[in-house]
């Protein structure tokens, strides 16, 4: 892997990656303090690739971009449903009266999340965290601290254009093939242009950091790590000189090397968990196996989900066992 000498854009500005491909960067109020967004030129305008959080700060930066562009926005394309990617998709699409492109599962899941939980009982969330080994006070704190998806996501348009595996979009004479990744989100869209030698990778393949691969209370028996590892492999067939444009950190070259690193990373975690399960343990007790830093606040949510995804993978492959204790906690162990 290596990182080409490409100037990092300031908020409200862009850097031209290739003819008709612009790199933008917007701030995030998290530990990971930025997101990379992209504009791809079409004949009659610019296609927005991901949008940032639905905040006034991001809107103001987008307005600076719009005022400086030589053509209007012609479409909005969202790689996946997470708020830092879909946050302003509806706002931009409505402002320019243009179509929204997403995969089917990402679109309808985003629509469902913006609708909130309504009067749905929270016992499933409580059960998920309790079975993981969190104390009751911590469970209540985590559940009450969720401000809601719709607070940082503008209303999702009531129609969209569906993207599927192997679909090809032609923008300004260049073809962009849809490659679907799963695991970080259910049906994540990546775009590969053979002519330009560019992969718009979203969160599916990141440099330096690993995408969160989590199993959450919405699908507690899911096997998202299996989904992730299996959908990483097709990216190793891309040419070695492919320039990868990720949603976080720097553009890089070396997609095959990075995919192999990500696969090795997860298998190291899997092996460490099997070893740690020599005695029955809860998810919370197993967190230090995967995370050496102190975890607090919302990081606990992502850490628990990541740990459960690895444990579910091991369960599906018969590497460990799981049973429910008298206290209602899941205990993970190995066959003796």
UniProtKB/TrEMBL annotation:
Residues 34-248 form the Metallo-beta-lactamase domain. InterPro entries: B_lactamase-like_C, Metallo-B-lactamas, RibonucZ/Hydroxyglut_hydro, Sec-metab_biosynth-thioest, WH-like_DNA-bd_sf. Pfam families: B_lactamase-like_C (PF21221), Lactamase_B (PF00753). This is Metallo-beta-lactamase family protein.
């Amino acid at each position: 892997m290596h990182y080409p000498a490409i100037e990092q854009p300031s908020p409200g500005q862009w850097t031209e990656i290739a003819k008709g491909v612009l790199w933008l960067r917007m701030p995030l109020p998290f530990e990971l303090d930025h997101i990379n967004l992209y504009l791809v030129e079409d004949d009659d305008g610019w296609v927005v690739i991901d949008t940032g959080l639905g905040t006034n700060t991001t809107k103001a930066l987008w307005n600076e971009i719009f005022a400086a562009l030589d053509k209007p926005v012609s479409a909005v394309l969202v790689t996946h449903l997470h708020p830092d990617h879909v946050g302003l998709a509806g706002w931009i699409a409505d402002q320019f009266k243009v179509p929204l492109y997403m995969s089917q599962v990402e679109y309808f899941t985003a629509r469902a999340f913006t609708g909130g939980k309504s009067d749905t009982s929270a016992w499933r969330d409580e059960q998920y965290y309790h079975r993981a080994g969190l104390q009751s006070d911590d469970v209540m704190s985590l559940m009450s601290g969720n401000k809601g998806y719709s607070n940082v996501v503008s209303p999702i348009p009531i129609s969209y254009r569906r993207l599927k595996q192997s679909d090809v979009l032609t923008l300004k004479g260049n073809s962009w093939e849809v490659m679907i990744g799963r695991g970080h989100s259910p049906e994540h869209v990546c775009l590969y242009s053979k002519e330009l030698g560019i992969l718009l990778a979203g969160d599916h393949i990141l440099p330096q950091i690993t995408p969160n691969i989590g199993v959450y209370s919405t699908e507690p028996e899911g096997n998202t790590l299996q989904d992730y590892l299996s959908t990483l492999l097709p990216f190793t067939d891309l040419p070695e000189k492919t320039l990868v444009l990720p949603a976080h950190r720097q553009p890089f070259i070396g997609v095959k090397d990075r995919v192999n690193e990500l696969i090795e990373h997860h298998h190291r975690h899997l092996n460490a968990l099997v070893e740690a399960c020599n005695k029955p343990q809860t998810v919370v007790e197993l967190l230090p196996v995967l995370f050496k830093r102190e975890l607090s606040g919302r990081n606990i949510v992502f850490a628990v989900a990541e740990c459960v995804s690895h444990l579910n993978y091991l369960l599906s492959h018969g590497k460990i066992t799981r049973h429910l204790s008298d206290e209602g906690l899941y205990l993970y162990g190995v066959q003796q």
